[in-house]
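Sequence only, no structure available. Ideas?
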Amino acid sequence: MQVAWVRLKSLRSEVSTHITFVNKTGREMRILWLNFEGDEVAYNIVPPEQTRRQQTFVTHPWIFRDLHTQERLVAGGRSVVCAKDHRDLCVYVERIPRLQWDPTSHCLYPQEFKELARMLLLCHRRMQASTEGGEPSALCVQFSTLPGDILLKLVEHSSPRGLPDIRVIEPCFLPMKPPEESISMYVIDRGCRARHLFADPATAAFA
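Reply:
I predicted one. Tokens follow.
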């Protein structure tokens, strides 16, 4: 299905209001306005635990970045703030939650890590097959008999730490009609194809 995308940008400057940004990140941050073309326009730098009251208009979106790393930040679980009416708005800006590994978030990790996880599961599957037709070593037997939930724990403990969970970030381009494929659907679809490779359903969902 073809999806038409529109760029997130300011629309009108009719209803004036104010947004107060409270920096709860523990680091210096910058607030940025998305102008009428959708480009980022740098505004105030806000020190940790400080506030800035910014005049704006209804329909004008604002985002926030760490001043030094340029990492996107969030307010109330959202990475874009836009006043809905003339009443003043106060938002508390925080860092994006860190990504926690599980089969549904696996597709968000770097490709190198995903390849390593896939190699581990393939190795497990092949060792299972080898124990059926020969005299494998004791190590092969021990590894091949590991249940799926233990393999998932191995992948979880080897996953990169400290990555931002980008699922909370609204894109700068928004679909006019919501796309049919979501992250969860993508994982399920990949799981259906992966069952040809892995016998254990617990490891098939993110192969």
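Residues 111-130 form the longest helix (20 residues).
Hope that gets you unstuck.
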